[in-house]
Amino acid sequence: MPIDLRHDPAVVELVEKTERFVREYVLPLEDANAGDITAAGGDDLRREMNAKAKAEGIFAPHAPVEFGGLGLNMTDRAPVFEAAGYSTFGPVALHIGAPDEGNVHMLAHIASEEQRHKYLAPLATGEVRSGFAMTEPAPGAGSDPNALRTQAVRVDGGWKINGKKHFITGAEGAGFFIIMARTAGSPGDRGGATMFLAPADTPGITVGRHINTIDKAMIGGHCEVTFDDLFVPDADILGEVDEGYRYAQVRLGPARMTHVMRWLGAAKRCHDVAVDYVSRREGFGGRLGDLGMIQQMIADNEIDLAASRALLLKACHELDLGNHASDETSIAKTFAGEAYSRIADRSIQMCGGLGVSADLPIARLSQELRPFRVYDGPSEVHRWAIARRAVGRAKKAQAAAAAK
Amino acid sequence: MPIDLRHDPAVVELVEKTERFVREYVLPLEDANAGDITAAGGDDLRREMNAKAKAEGIFAPHAPVEFGGLGLNMTDRAPVFEAAGYSTFGPVALHIGAPDEGNVHMLAHIASEEQRHKYLAPLATGEVRSGFAMTEPAPGAGSDPNALRTQAVRVDGGWKINGKKHFITGAEGAGFFIIMARTAGSPGDRGGATMFLAPADTPGITVGRHINTIDKAMIGGHCEVTFDDLFVPDADILGEVDEGYRYAQVRLGPARMTHVMRWLGAAKRCHDVAVDYVSRREGFGGRLGDLGMIQQMIADNEIDLAASRALLLKACHELDLGNHASDETSIAKTFAGEAYSRIADRSIQMCGGLGVSADLPIARLSQELRPFRVYDGPSEVHRWAIARRAVGRAKKAQAAAAAK
Amino acid sequence: MPIDLRHDPAVVELVEKTERFVREYVLPLEDANAGDITAAGGDDLRREMNAKAKAEGIFAPHAPVEFGGLGLNMTDRAPVFEAAGYSTFGPVALHIGAPDEGNVHMLAHIASEEQRHKYLAPLATGEVRSGFAMTEPAPGAGSDPNALRTQAVRVDGGWKINGKKHFITGAEGAGFFIIMARTAGSPGDRGGATMFLAPADTPGITVGRHINTIDKAMIGGHCEVTFDDLFVPDADILGEVDEGYRYAQVRLGPARMTHVMRWLGAAKRCHDVAVDYVSRREGFGGRLGDLGMIQQMIADNEIDLAASRALLLKACHELDLGNHASDETSIAKTFAGEAYSRIADRSIQMCGGLGVSADLPIARLSQELRPFRVYDGPSEVHRWAIARRAVGRAKKAQAAAAAK
Amino acid sequence: MPIDLRHDPAVVELVEKTERFVREYVLPLEDANAGDITAAGGDDLRREMNAKAKAEGIFAPHAPVEFGGLGLNMTDRAPVFEAAGYSTFGPVALHIGAPDEGNVHMLAHIASEEQRHKYLAPLATGEVRSGFAMTEPAPGAGSDPNALRTQAVRVDGGWKINGKKHFITGAEGAGFFIIMARTAGSPGDRGGATMFLAPADTPGITVGRHINTIDKAMIGGHCEVTFDDLFVPDADILGEVDEGYRYAQVRLGPARMTHVMRWLGAAKRCHDVAVDYVSRREGFGGRLGDLGMIQQMIADNEIDLAASRALLLKACHELDLGNHASDETSIAKTFAGEAYSRIADRSIQMCGGLGVSADLPIARLSQELRPFRVYDGPSEVHRWAIARRAVGRAKKAQAAAAAK
């Protein structure tokens, strides 16, 4: 049977509905607020947009059907999330933004029946938002997860957690947190980590200052969060004790890909705005868009968009097959993260002075896209992992040849 | 129905057979002759390798089944051709090298019944080779096909052709030529071109000097060919008069993609040789392959290979759907052409002094790969076409918006 | 006599004084205000900083000695301006920011005795600021100066000017404007342009909205300015009628180089902050700054800084010799503009999450540096000019060879 | 006193003489032999060209005046060597090729009076050629000099040397060798190395196979050389025992810069050929050289040439001041090595099909230029050294700040 890359007609229709919804309803909200979702209304705006998305039948396309979602697999999410990401407010509108989308994904895979009820259901339906508390300030767990310092110690009936996190997306206003804490070993060696669930109002949780990052479209900010003698009962352990690193991988692969999807939309918008601009503007005896150096930028954007999309599809397909897809997701994440910055940068350049101004949205979109090369593993860490696996394969092949 | 990127098991098996055949039989021939197929025996070697490939059941996988081929579509050709291209002699061995492979493809689509018998059958079975005589020396048709100067004039019962071609791959020893000649308009404007078929021994055809290019793996060289009052009867017109540019597009899209497939194999080999090298060699207190800057090169090679493969698949799928796929093939060709040079260059660098020597095959493979950024349309021409279409779409959208 | 690249000891001492002044006094002001000079106090702050710089003997090092400046040539300005630019407030503090610095330079070359008194003297001493009104919104003069639309028509005793400008740096609060207006020909052809001087409070001059660009360190913003029947008497014509394009070149070459100098300081700061960070931070079993991929970024920054500085010196030297130095200034501007963005980007990446936050100054410095690839001629226009001259030289050589 | 970058008129005249000599006499010899100096006659041709260069008064411009050279410092060598390098045979013609030029330089600094007579005099005058035997096959001293394995052991009246070298440039036909051998410590740690002088016909020296590298312009090849119980008397120790690494640095800094000079000429030639081509050739309704994407390549070549030249001048000046200039030479070497490959690659691309053929010299010049990124320390090793020094400076500054 020949390979077929065409999406099911139902998915194609969903994409078109999402495109229309974003273009007509969401994009104007984003532009009116210069892309700052907090300034635009934060959670109040979110609820309003969510209600509208529900009415359109496009809310939470990734969530399990039992909770009112559309249950799309990764491959089918790709074009829908891209369409949503065309506005930086789109993912919040459809409730498919980070970290909620990844948390729904992970809870759907790992949560106990009780936890599905207590945590997943309100999250999937948009009743509450959530936080994923893993990253720590130096010298804790950043790019290197083995440096994990937040400590959970066994106490009667549960665990007591102490530690400091930062860059916790969506923390302000979150209903609950998934917390990664060390339950074995010492910072620097791998040892064991465990994931815990805790309502945000549990004593011992303090959401601190928002780190003022250059992206403004993630609801609830990127916050510092402190745990002081936070008690988590055994029933709120997510999955098994000491298996946190493994679950983190379960979450991170798909979460990386949904980042690639959403920001693909934003990168596409940069390109569209720039091509529209150079198609109208005259100079040097003709249309700017007909000048060779401009054409080169247009073409390179098209190539970068196409390659990002193609690598994304491949990685999603591997994930849908149930594979770890460590290589495929690292490759897609690294390429796309860098491609999006290139696309935004070329788009700015095509628009000249307006490109570096707020008269066009490209400069601020460029600020939304830049952090992706750092978030969810900097490019350097992914390259390191890709190379280690390649060298590992070579050593194995050498050993096999030597064994003959 | 979810998207599925997996090849049919029969294709997977064909790929594995091809890989084994290339590794065990073809690669040693290539290496023993430093990749120079003429020095290695030229057509004698080709016949020998073809016989072997037939015996293995992997000969001409792209050719129509009626002529003994396997009738693979473009998507399925991709991994098979890549496996063949792992040796630069592999495409000749399987009879899927340029220009024969593209000529088979075009004749299968356009040739009359009689022409199928006279030209396609012996070509598909490897009885003869062929040439595609389109490119001309300056100021004729090179990157800009509209500059076509070779002239065909109507005479009794057929056409008389005069002109000069160059870079005609495989001309030396070819059994027949497909000739592109102007039948309407003047050089510089589009006008009309027509394709003609002519046995190589027809009076008026002279194969001149081999242009000494840096690639050495294409059988029959890149030659100058002159037509002096060459007579072609009406029966040997390929398709319709004045439709040559259109047919050229039919040929060029798929032909570009099979270039991408074959050279992907060669690029993969550069990478494999380099990773093998840095996995063995020690320096700076450890294994070279564990140094960060080497890891970066390894990872970038992996990314470039994956992106080339993903873009290729997308373009092949569009072609299989019967679309022109002008954008998709231009994008895949441009990206891959440049990626292969990067891969070869990084692979050289990883191997240091040996990388720039004949002790490893990378330096000469780099010479095989470099011309791909020029052949079949330089990157600049493809970028120009990609950009023109993007600007065209923007103008159309502007007009549609204005019409509202 | 051998070439000597060492600056005079007096210049070296001036550089050291400037470095100390910037580090101890200016940088804290910048950082306390997140680099926004308007928020920091605008002209009030400027006067305060200027007084301090005067007290240190480092004020206006480029201005003619007769007006209290130090009269440095271009070559000697380079390290002083770089030292000032280490803080984005530094150029304002020393009164060497755009556009005043370039306006002083141009007036010193072209102004009549009366104009020197009326305009140059108060500008050079920092009593007033100035604007350079050349750039126009589409379809007027942007990258393509020939598109100039602002019109000056001859009236009794002077000229009447009508037109619209934008991106006029420093317009808000400027004491006077240098205005470029068409006095011959039509928009699109070259024709003639003339430069006019006009006090900012002359009837007919309206400073409109500030264009909200991503850079925040230029005092007086980037504004829209409208001229409605603005009358300029003959005495306030700067230089000769119809010679405006030529004078613009006189101004633009050096003005480009002082941009390169100032922003070199800001790029250097990005690098210093990043190297300091990776020299402290641990991860992956060692210091981040010892990881190969980080080392690559550090080294590439060092290379980019050194090359920018070396190209700058060469261009300045040519200008000091009295040459047009069109090639040298275009090359230095293009290379440096792009290098600074690369440096800022790598510096962000080295600092990970903090790199994309306001906890470190790199992200906002990156926003200051980005527009330089657009301001003062986008890279594409400079490349176009460089290439045209190279092709011109080749044609000339061909003609000379043919004439033999 | 203002900085002056102009060369002394005598140097300017020497450059012009060299340009004329190369253009009229040397270049035709190179082109007639496709750049292969061995095929062109090897040492016979060298003697012939040397005699001619002597007659022109341009022979050995770097050699001490006492031996008939012109005694130029590094800064003045730069334009002369560039002019010579415009032909790949030029450096041999002027006797300023590797390794002789670097060996003359080092002997002039370190050799004893007797050694000046015995080794330096015949070398400087071109009576003999020489080899510099440092690099070893894996696991010996390659990019990592500490891996040195060739061993010298104290014997009565001198030293006995055993070991294997490779990539020894000019070994075939050399009159003597400078040999780097370990006299203290073990492979992997630094320990001590010593330099020895030995006539090529000393028993125990065997020049083995030529490694078949892609560059063909260095006389005497890149050879394997073996030392079997080679006896070197104390009088032929070059400098002090155990000081070899220090002397190697003395040689390597300047030797790197003269590589940068010579290959700058070859890179310039690539560019000149390409610009000449695109200035003549028509296509797409105009001259190729007027197309935007071609203009971009032309401009980028001009920028790369200018930046290489500017960094070279800076590094040479530091060396002339007697500084180690480790950073400056590493930066110039790394940037130029990579720039030359980019220049050659763009030049090929501009010339399309002819660019990848032997009809133009660019493709083979590209092969001459590629190894420079590996020879004399690969780019990665230089970047590593640059970064280590930058981090070292940061640590020092942190310590100084902490000490306050």
Characterise the protein shown here.
Chain A is of the alpha+beta class and 404 residues long. Chain A has 3 domains: 9-97, Acyl-CoA dehydrogenase/oxidase, N-terminal domain (Butyryl-Coa Dehydrogenase, subunit A, domain 1, Orthogonal Bundle); 130-242, Butyryl-CoA Dehydrogenase, subunit A, domain 2; 246-402, Butyryl-CoA Dehydrogenase, subunit A, domain 3. In chain A, 51% of the residues lie in helices and 15% in strands. Chain A has helices at 9-32, 43-56, 74-85, 90-94, 100-110, 113-124, 244-280, 292-320, 326-350, 352-355, 362-369, 379-403; strands at 130-133, 151-155, 158-169, 176-184, 192-199, 205-210, 222-233, 237-238, 282-283, 286-287. In chain A, the strands form 3 sheets. In chain A, strands 1-4-5-8 form a 4-stranded mixed sheet, with helices on one face. Chain A has a 4-stranded antiparallel sheet with strand order 2-3-7-6, with no helix packed on it. In chain A, helix 1 (9-32) packs parallel to helix 3 and helix 7 (244-280) packs parallel to helix 9 (326-350). The longest helix of chain A has 37 residues, at 244-280. The mean pLDDT of chain A is 96.
